[in-house]
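User: We ran a pulldown and think these components assemble together. Before we commit to crystallization trials, I'd like a predicted model of the whole complex to look at. Sequences follow.
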Amino acid sequence: MEKTKRDPLFHVSKKDEPGFLAKTVTLLIAVFCALLVSALFIYFVTGLDPISVYISMFKGAFGTTRRTWITVRDTCLLLLISVSLAPAFRMRFWNCGAEGQILMGGLSTAALMIYCGEKIPTGLLLLIMLVTSALCGALWSFLPAYFKAKYDTNETLFTLMMNYVAIQLIEFFVDVWDKKQSHSVGIINMNTMGGWFPKILGQQYILNVLIVAVITVFVYIYMHYSKHGYENAVVGESVATARYAGINVPKVIRNNVLLSGAIAGIAGFVEVAGISHTISKETAGGRGFTAIIVCWLAKFNPLSMILISLFLVFLDKGASQIASDFGLNTFASNIITGIMLFFILSCEFFNNYRISFNRNRKEGE
Amino acid sequence: MTVAQIVSWLVSAISFGTVIMYGCIGETIDQKAGGLNLGVPGVMQIGGIAALVSAFLYEYNVSSPNPFVALLLCLVSTLIASALAGLLYSFLTVTLKVNQNVTGLTLTIFGTGIANFFGGNMMKLSGGVGTIFVATTSNAFRAKLPILSNSHAPISMILFSHGWMVYLALILAFVAQYFLNHTRTGLNLRSVGENPATADAAGINVTRYKYLASIVGCMICGLGGLFYVMDYIKGTWANDSAIEALGWLAVSLVIFTSWKPKNATWGAYLFGLFYWAYVYIPADISRYLANKMNLQKITYMQNLYKMLPYILTIIVLCFVSHRKRRENQAPASLGQSYFREER
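Assistant: Here's a predicted model for the assembly, 708 residues in total across the polymer chains.
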């Protein structure tokens, strides 16, 4: 006997990209749903009132001037890392190695702070650190870039493995530099502040913001208004087209991934010299991965990158606040971030596809 | 190096290899259907924590916990939790057509959060202090084969001194190999991964195959997490995200084995040997190198030795891509989502 066939309940078809307003509404609905699911999670696990938890989150991120500055500082750092990924990503080069590149930039910065912090004046030292951290980051992205360009080696796993090599290198130097046998470097140049970012206008993090702003603008101009940026876009759209147009594809891949690594290295410099003044394997703290998602969601649009970074940092700070208020560990922030991202990622489907329900559906016809 | 050292090196390598062997088998099944799941570290952690939490709740609420019940409870909760993770992944990537890399990475962030949140807070949430420790359940997982494991001869130490899940992994690897290459369902699954449009035209339900491959694949990855928690670190939790590194190694192992689960049986142990090498590299070599580098202590060298499994992976990746043998390539549609109207 043949199986009876039914019309499907609904039907999916492509549609044109919607306007800005429609997209924003979809996004807001997704964020609302995510907040709802997170609230359920918070309620069932901790038994706390979600509304007061969300208020507590807001206070955690913007409660005092100091906290607001910390949120701004971390947003800038995440933005810088996301910006660093953009040139690689537009070519569909999945640079999962930002973590390692940040660590290497941070390592070179820490080394200069330790060995030259008291010998070279801070201004000059900062400049040297900027350059070396960019070189170290680029160095760490060189091998994956070279092999991707030449043999099409899987860059996702290659860059991931480079992260772990970097982590072990950090662990090694932490042991070498550690004077108290505590497996930690401690705050470098605590008294002399050699190689620390100086305060500008009485604020500690102005220089961080400035560096990130300059690099973001630079990358934006590079990607949209330069010949190299255009070649990058062509390679991303179609390698075959690029080859036909006479673009040297391996060279474009190599140069853009090196640029990506260099900026990630600078992010390590900002983190070590401008924020933590120490180095450990936690220096990158998973930001390299979060940045991948920021970069993907923002579709390389710098304004969206700023907003998404701010939003994720807000969630992170907020969740840490809940954690300390209620004596839980900070991994709650990963959970809430995860839930939020799942929902925001789903948005894209509703922007690109239309679901039509079959009204005249007949059962078991 | 003494015989005892070699034996203990091999034993720890096998134990380590088992964790990534589960991950590798699960990921291979998923990838054969075209799903590049970078959420393996997250799924492993979800599977591991599900077992640990259920064992914890059972052991702390029952006065004399029965090992067999605990074992069953752990298996069921791991399989359910990791199947849910697989369902989430396939819903996003297959139905909603979200990019697979991004979804996988998000799943890893989420899984790390879930696992470390419950791993670190379970005791506090249930009103106790300290870290979780589930002795009865862990012992049930580490139960050794009777008779065969009694002997202390080196060869029987290497082969028989493990918990039962080590052998289960080996069986699973061969079953998966047979399933993929010698059954009708396996053939259909591979055709979905190679060319979903053709498979669709041949009447294969692409969506269903992709869903099932992700879910079953994640369930097997979850078993890796279960083994890690109950056997490898003996029934407790460590917030050191060591398991995350193992998850990535498992994904790399898929390429190393060129998508053939049977190769995972020795490949995983080889990775294990490299991972544990830092403990067994002779002290003379370390002393020599440490002197050359002017180090205060020779133990500092261990940090550098720990790079070995990752460097091995990098070399393997380069080598495999350099050779480009036709039968060793990834499934053709790996990483792409399928939309029927876009053919």
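Chain A touches chain B through 53 residues (CB under 8 Å). That may be worth checking against your pulldown data before setting up trials.

User: Thanks, that helps.
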